[in-house]
Design goal:
The structure is a homodimer of 148-residue chains.
Chain A lengths: L5 H11 E9 L7 E12 L3 H11 L3 E6 L2 E6 L2 H14 L6 H16 L6 H11 L4 H10 L4
Helix pairs in contact in A: 3-4, 4-5
């Protein structure tokens, strides 16, 4: 099986990829919130083999059902996002406006690595950055995050 | 401005491109039908610059409004499809199931170059090939094409 080309993966992600950061209330966390960044690619089930090929390409993530006839490759582990996904898209840059989602996403991953997500102040900074991401994401984070 | 990478263009097309063949009744045509193949990439207006960049990349096509806040790069000229688009995706292959749309599309372009679209029999062959393309396309061609 031929390996996917790195630029092809960047182009396909420009079309089909999502950089998402969920910020949810969680009283079990010291700062009161849980930060859940994820990278995913959703496809119709007819292309499930390609999702597995992408999983092999990145050497991380899980292929699972998304919704109805759709499947996704989902990468959530912070070390995989930090050591594989972020460096990859820094080397093979996105060309659509999605690149600004990625830039904010990469910043948040960096903040998490600095443990910013464990303090109330750090959560505030993460929220400000997440707001720069796509509108759907913004709506979700604003709904879940009550400042003060 | 940096030129787009060929593999990036293939990956982006796997996500966002459409190979479409319209077969419409047209009493002015000898065979009674008009065959209209087109390649298009539709994007939200926020990425209109990228559509122009893709137009520069392929050195053909037109960027125009698609619908509401969406714009498209559309390539319809048979010589551009035949000499630029088809050879490009033969060299930089698609990875999704969309590749089967492309294979059928390329066959139809070849048939048009052989003037098959000018005879009733040729139109029948083109329709059979178009049926192998995406469902939306199939529905449209079946609606418009009355055999016999």
């Amino acid at each position: 099986m031929e390996k996917l080309n790195c630029y092809w993966v960047a182009g396909f992600t420009d079309g089909e990829g999502t950089f998402y950061v969920g910020i949810n209330k969680n009283t079990q966390m010291t700062a009161g919130f849980q930060v859940l960044p994820e990278f995913r690619i959703v496809q119709h089930q007819r292309d499930i083999k390609l999702l597995h090929k992408l999983k092999d390409f990145f050497k991380c993530g899980v292929v699972r059902k998304n919704h109805d006839t759709r499947y996704e490759l989902r990468i959530r582990k912070i070390e995989h996002l930090s050591q594989i996904i972020v460096p990859f898209f820094q080397k093979y840059p996105l060309q659509t406006q999605k690149k600004y989602d990625f830039i904010a996403f990469a910043k948040i991953i960096k903040m998490i690595n600095q443990n910013d997500h464990l303090t109330k102040q750090g959560i505030g900074k993460i929220l400000q950055t997440a707001k720069k991401m796509n509108r759907k994401n913004k709506a979700i984070t604003e709904r879940n995050f009550q400042v003060g």
